[in-house]
Amino acid sequence: MSWYDNAAAPWNFVSRKLITARMVTMWIWLGLLIIGGLVAALITGAALLLLVPAAALLLGGWGSWLIVRQVTAHAWAEDEEDLLVRRGRMFRSVTVVPYGRMQFVDVKAGPIERALGIAKVQLHTASPGTDASISGVPAAEADRLRDRLTTRGEARLAGL
Amino acid sequence: MNDYVYQAPREWTRLHPVSPLLGGWVFIGLLLAYWVHNQVPAWVDGGDDTFAFFDRFPFLWLVLAALLAFAATIGISIWQWSRTEYRIGDDAVYLRQGIITRQQRQARLDRLQAVDVVQPLLARIFGFAAINVQVAGGQKSGVELKFLRLGDAEALRNEILALAAGVKQEKAAGHDAAPTPDATGAPGVAARGTDATTIANPTTPATDADGTPASSASIRGHLAQRAGALSNPEAVLSGTEQFRTAVAAAEEREVYTVPLKRLLLSILLSGAAITLLTLPFVGLIAFVVFRVDVVAAVTAFIGTSLVAIVTAAAGLLGFFWTRLNGGFGFTAGISADGLRLRHGLTETRRQTVPPGRVQAIRLYQPFLWRGQDWWRITINVAGYGEDQESVSVLHPVATREEAIRAVWLVLPDLGDPDPYGTLGHALHGSGAEGGFTTSPESARRVDPFQWRFRGVRATDRALLIRRGRWERELFVVPHERTQSLGLTQGPIRRALGLADVVVHSTQGPVTPVAAHLAVDDAMALLDAQAARAREGRRRQTPEQWMSAVGLETGAGHE
User: Fold this and answer.
1) End-to-end Cα spacing for chain B
2) Is the CB of B487 inside 8 Å of chain A's CB atoms?
3) By C-alpha distance, which of B515, B492, B494 is closest to B503?
4) In whole angstroms, what is the distance from residue A151 CA to residue A130 CA?
5) pLDDT tens-digit map of B266-319
6) B517-538: buried (b, 16+ CB within 10 Å) or exposed (e) per residue?
7) pLDDT tens digits, residue range B545-556?
8) What is the mean pLDDT of chain B?
9) Each residue of B451-481: pLDDT tens digit?
């Protein structure tokens, strides 16, 4: 057993569209940097300025690789009593949140995420340390997940 | 005052009329007045140009302006007071306030986490107090009522706690609470009329409305007891006074107090104090051995970074002050309403934390306290925010014996056949002794000193996490209070086959982490702990702690 694998419930991996969403966000900023660097290099004629787009490209390549690795590792599982969220490859973590501890559930989607039809579901407990957010859940599934979590949370509601 | 019995208001009621005068600004005003008074001779002489600006105006104008400012301050305070009203219901404490933006807030009693009676210096001098009702539900969700007469505040607190405990519900269910001696004739009727746990007091119309006139004997008994209480103002001040209040305070048994000598010594043995005390010696050594011109160096240093020095000094003084003020006269007791803590030098605070509201405990022993075997014990209580370090102390400086008793206060049943032995291993042990799961030897690479001292152990009721070689730390988290669990691992730990297990507790000074466990141990702990937390939630104390099965309601309130 190399890393935590929950036998009781299958892992649901998040949508691959999350890769697109994160890539778009990252490349918009890097793209601005690359274009800015190229334009500046063309205007001033200073070859050194070409280092900026080159660095941005390198950074983008590394970032893209990270995004693919992270998204493909991000998953959740709905156990009988707990929600499990798994994330990360380099720095990996598993969070176990009992349904009864749930205070409220957020479903969020930015413009890019909405265009791709995915959303972020976040479960809040009374603890600020609980990091139980699932990014890149298909929108319809996100709503169903939220309803499921709420129902289960009410059924098993415990005090603080 | 003799006939006066405070009754927690069911209708919208204002706070005590002196409240606007008890704000902190009075102090500032007094200081300012004192300063002006001191400066007057220089002003009149004209030798001081501090007041050059004012000299341009006629004297009368200045007096008028000062009076106007004073009147405006008082006026606004009074206006604010007149728009602040509160009431209590069976399910919540309500507060509405605000001049321009009106705010209504209700603190639901089923979410009640703690009730504090706070007396800032000025309020304390005149016998007033504020009540803080802490409820679960994020920052600033509690209700603060300031100010009430001290006795009234105590009474309100008792009533809030009785309501939150579910005492009322028990009555409605026809539950016969412990009757008073006079009640033997007609237990059912008299219990409602005389039992101190009932919300209605025999001297108020509420009882008559029941159509059950209280027996005159019981009234006489009450009056005699009240007379006794009034002739004993000490009891009022120490919060043990029972009979001016409609609902008597739950009987309290003192568990420990902190002697002033130990508190002072503990402050002296802090890192900050040692640093402060050794500075002159460092200077002396520098002067004698290295022939450094210390005075010149210090002057130069002060000249360049005065701001930094002042900030550091203020921080140090603040640290000493917080420790002294928070730990002064620290007393802990146990009552049917839960944990009672009393402390404070200038500002006194009486905290009541109902059973099952403590989310996590941390016992910490700085290196300098090892000789004495002293521990500082802090707790997480939902509703008390992160910044309120002073309200989260369970014991500012405990001996080992007291530390174990403090844990017992929160967790009467540790779920272990040998709690003393287990806590002993948790506080001082190393290695696997006492059933602890320790870090594997590979942890030595990242944790050379304390890997042997790290340990985790679960009893039937709580998880114990210990760490530290020179300074010691122990976390105790009741299983039913675990919010969620985390398992984390970075690249280095992965290479060494280690992982951390994090127990998420509510916001507060206690953040329990079991670091550097072997991966297999960590994963097993995660699973086991999730199961234990599940089990714990099933049998946890109900929110209304007095309505728990098997608890004798009323007995503690008598």
Assistant:
1) 24
2) yes
3) B515
4) 20
5) 999 988 888 888 888 888 888 888 777 777 877 777 777 777 778 888 888 888
6) bbbebbbebbbebbebbbebbe
7) 765 444 444 433
8) 79
9) 999 999 999 999 999 999 999 999 999 999 9
Structure tokens at B335: 């009552």
Provide the shortest C-alpha distance from residue B42 to chain A (in Å): 56
Q: Does B380 touch chain A (CB under 8 A)?
A: no
| Residue appearing with tokens 């009727």 | B189
As given in the structure block, the two tokens for residue A105 are: 């559930």
B511: which chain A residues are within 8 Å (Cβ-Cβ)? 129
Are A130 and B136 a contacting pair at CB < 8 A?
no
Domain end (from A54, A69, A84) = A69
Measured in whole angstroms, the distance separating CA A86 from the mean position of its chain's CA atoms is: 11
Residue B377 is inside which H or E element, if any?
strand B375-381
Q: Please list every residue in chain B whose beta carbon sits closer than 8 Å to the beta carbon of residue A98.
A: 482, 484, 530, 533-534, 537
Q: Are residues A127 and A142 in the same domain?
A: yes
Last residue of a domain, which of A33, A53, A69? A69
Range of the domain at A132: 75-155
- Provide the ipTM: 0.90
Q: Is residue A31 part of a domain?
A: yes
Domain membership of residue A56 (yes or no) is yes
C-alpha–C-alpha distance, residues B328 and B436, integer Å: 36
Between the alpha carbon of residue B14 and those of residues A137, B25, B101, B149, B309, the distances in Å are 51, 21, 18, 13, 46
Contact B356 A159 (CB under 8 A): yes
Of B526, B520, B527, whose CA–CA distance to B440 is shortest? B520
Chain A residues with CB under 8 Å of B487 CB are 4, 93-96
Distance, in Å, from the CA atom of B291 to the CA atom of A124, rounded to the nearest integer, reads 62
CA dihedral A160, B454, B362, B535 (to 10 degrees): 20
Question: Is B57 exposed, middle or buried, given 0-12, 13-18 or 19+ CB atoms closer than 10 A?
Answer: exposed
Whats the size of chain B, residue-wise? Answer: 558
Cis peptide before B147 (omega within 30 of 0): yes
Q: Do A160 and B526 touch (CB under 8 A)?
A: no
Of A94, A97, A160, the CB nearest to B506: A160
* Average confidence (pLDDT) over A89-107: 91
Question: Does some domain include residue A160?
Answer: no
What is the domain count for chain A?
A: 2
Instruction: Give, in order, the Cα–Cα distances in Å from B439 to each of B428, B500, B514, B516, B522.
Output: 16, 10, 9, 6, 10
Domain range summary for chain B, segments of one domain joined by +: 260-317, 358-540
